[in-house]
Amino acid sequence: MRLSRYFLPVLKETPSEAQIVSHRLMLRAGMIKQSSAGIYSWLPLGFKVLKNIEKIVHEEQVRAGHIPMLMPTLQSADLWKESGRYDAYGPEMLRIRDRQDRDMLYGPTNEEMITDIFRSRVSSYKDLPLTLYHIQWKFRDEIRPRFGVMRGREFLMKDGYNFDLTKEDALHAYNRHLVSYLRTYERMGLQAIPMRADSGPIGGDDTHEFLVLADTGESEVFYDAEITDLKFGKREIDYDSVEACQAVLEEFTSRYARTDETHDEALFNEVPEERRRVARGIEVGQIFYFGTKYSDAMNATVQGPDGKPVAVHMGSHGIGVSRLLGAIIEASHDDKGIIWPEGVTPFHVGIVNLKSGDAEADAACEALYDSFTKLGLEPLYDDRNERAGGKFATMDLIGLPWRITVGPRGLKNGIVELTSRRTGESEELPPEEAVAKVAAIYANL
Ligand code: 5CA
C-alpha cells in the first residue's frame, strides 16, 4: 500500500476523552472512530489488525478440531425465555421489537441459539463429540462503556460451544480449549495467564479467565510469579489426546492464579512470599464448563448407546477479539506509539523515502515494494512529499515492527537502513539483504 493512496487519518492532538494509552493510540493512529458510546467504526488500519487477530483465532480453533459457522446477531426472545435468561440478563440486554410486535434482542452471547440448533439437528450420541464456534458481533449495554474497544457495547467475540455425551468428554473439551487459547494468545505476542474465575451470568462451576497483565486492567489478580516463566511456544499437541491436554492444563493451572472474585487469602499465603504478586489484568478470554444447565432447560438430548435420551454436557468458550487490540497495545507500546508484534501487524514493513521526487530514491523504494509484494508480504510505502521527521513520527505511531529508510546518500554507497521498532536499533545493508532479513523474520513466525 502506498500511503499517498491510503486512508490513515492520524490525529495530531491527543484526544481528551481517552483515559488509557491503547485508546489514545488507536484514535491517534486512525484505527477507530467512535460512532456512539461504546460503538466504533473500524477505520482501515484498525480493521486490518482486527482481521489479523480473527485469522489467528480461526486457525487455532480449526487446529484444535473445532468447526466454524455463523449465527445471526439478532435473536428471538423466545429461546431466552425458555432458558430463563431473558429476565435474568437484565438491562445489559438490548431488547428490540420488530414490526410484528415480536420480542427480539441483539445477542450478548449464543448459548440458547446454539443449543436450539443442536437439539433440532442432532439426535444420536454417534454425532458427538461436537464443538462449533463463530466469530460474530455481540451487544451488551454496559453501564459504563469505556477505554475504547476494551469495554465496548458492540464488540467482536469468538464464542465456541462443545456438546459431549459425558462429563469427562466435556472436561476434555474444556482442556482442549485451554490449550488452544495458550497458543492463540502467544501467536499474538501476548502472555495471557489462565486464572480461576467466577462464572457470572453464563453459569457453571469450572471456569478460567485468561488475563494479560497490565496496570490499566479492570481486574485485580493474585498469582505466583513462577507462572510468568511458562511458555507454550510452538508445541504440537495432539488435541484428541486426553492425557496430552491434561498435562498442559496441569502445567499452566497448578500454581496459584486467581481473579479477585475467587481469591483465597489463606491459599495465597502458602505461596512463598517473594513469589506472591498482586497486579491488574485485562480479561481477553474465558472458558466455561456448565454441564447440563442449558440442555436440561431447553431439552437438548441425544439418544445414548442404550437407546435412552441423555442430556448433553456443554461448555462455552469466548475470546474477546476486538478487545484484544486494546490489550495488545497496552502490553506493547512506548511514548512514540504502538509496537505491533509481528503476528498481528497491519503491514509487515514500512518503507520511508527520505527524498520523494529523487529519481534514484523513488526507484529504490519501488524496487523494495515489488520485492516484498512478490514474497507475499505487505509493505506500507510512505511516498508522500513530506519531511522525513513527519514520516518517522507516523511510522512510529502506527507501530510497524520493521522500517526501511531509503535516501540518496545511502544509495550512493548501495545501502538502506533497516530499523527495529521495538529496540530502535538500525543497521545499514544492501536493499536485497534488508528484504531477505525481513522475509526471514516473518517466515519463522
Ligand atoms: N458465552 C461465553 C463464552 S463464549 C461468554 O460470553 N463469555 S464472556 O462473557 O466471558 O465473554 C467472552 C470474552 O469477550 C471476554 O473474556 C472478554 O474478552 C470479551 N468481552 C466481554 N465483554 C466485553 C465488552 N463489553 N467489550 C469488549 N470485549 C468484551
Automatic annotation (TrEMBL):
UniProt entry tagged with the keyword Protein biosynthesis: yes
Cellular component GO terms, alphabetical: cytosol
Domain of life of the source: Bacteria
Enzyme class: ligase
Main location: cytoplasm
CDD domains the record matches: ProRS_anticodon_short, ProRS_core_prok
Key words of the record: Aminoacyl-tRNA synthetase, ATP-binding, Cytoplasm, Ligase, Nucleotide-binding, Protein biosynthesis
Gene Ontology biological-process annotations: prolyl-tRNA aminoacylation
UniProt keyword annotation of Nucleotide-binding present: yes
Molecular function via GO: ATP binding; proline-tRNA ligase activity
Ranges of residues in domain Aminoacyl-transfer RNA synthetases class-II family profile: 38-341
EC number(s) given by UniProt: 6.1.1.15
InterPro entries found in the cross-reference section: aa-tRNA-synt_IIb, aa-tRNA-synth_II, aa-tRNA-synth_II/BPL/LPL, Anticodon-bd, Anticodon-bd_dom_sf, Pro-tRNA-ligase_IIa, Pro-tRNA-synth_IIa_bac-type, Pro-tRNA_synthetase
Subcellular location: Cytoplasm
Catalytic reaction equation(s): tRNA(Pro) + L-proline + ATP = L-prolyl-tRNA(Pro) + AMP + diphosphate
One Pfam family here: tRNA-synt_2b
The protein's role, per its UniProt record: Catalyzes the attachment of proline to tRNA(Pro) in a two-step reaction: proline is first activated by ATP to form Pro-AMP and then transferred to the acceptor end of tRNA(Pro).
Subunit structure, as described in the record: Homodimer.
PANTHER family xrefs: MITOCHONDRIAL RIBOSOME PROTEIN L39/PROLYL-TRNA LIGASE FAMILY MEMBER (PTHR42753), PROLINE--TRNA LIGASE (PTHR42753:SF2)
Family: Belongs to the class-II aminoacyl-tRNA synthetase family. ProS type 2 subfamily.
Name by which UniProt lists this protein: Proline--tRNA ligase
Native species: Pseudooceanicola spongiae
